[in-house]
Write a structure and sequence with these properties.
The strands form two sheets. Strands 2, 4, 5, 6, 9, 10 and 11 form a seven-stranded mixed sheet that branches. A four-stranded antiparallel sheet has the order 1-3-8-7, with no helix packed on it. By secondary structure, the chain is mainly β. 0% of the residues lie in helices and 50% in strands.
């Protein structure tokens, strides 16, 4: 059974950085696309960025490409999300999700989801 576990969230001040990790267990990461999602209080869950099995990256919505960087380490079965210059509006629960091979802009297409990690940006 494939499981995803997120880590790396926390409380930071505006302008600081965080690196989130999505660890995959139960199967090799190689054939999976991994998407990062976030859900802010009172808002719908939204897809932020995805990396497919060939390391092709797709950004979604209003995500600023210059601030968020996704990467994958197949040897470690882990996908990272580096978030720089964090803003209060980045406060949300961040979660990762997986589907085979290709990214999708249709969130239900990701059939494996992690529990999420809280990111709070506040002074």
């Amino acid at each position: 059974q494939v499981q995803l576990v997120e880590s790396g969230g926390g409380l930071v001040q505006p302008g600081e950085s965080l690196r989130l990790s999505c660890s995959v267990s139960g199967h090799t990461l190689d054939n999976f696309a991994i998407g990062w999602f976030r859900q802010a209080p009172g808002k719908e869950r939204e897809e932020v960025v995805c990396i497919n099995s060939n390391k092709l990256i797709t950004y979604y919505g209003n995500t600023e490409k210059g601030r968020f960087t996704i990467s994958r380490d197949n040897a470690e079965n882990t996908v990272h999300l580096l978030m720089n210059s964090l803003k209060p509006e980045d406060t949300a629960i961040y979660s990762c999700a997986a589907r085979l091979f290709y990214c999708s802009d249709y969130p239900p297409a990701y059939n494996i989801r992690g529990q999420g990690t809280q990111v709070t940006v506040s002074s």
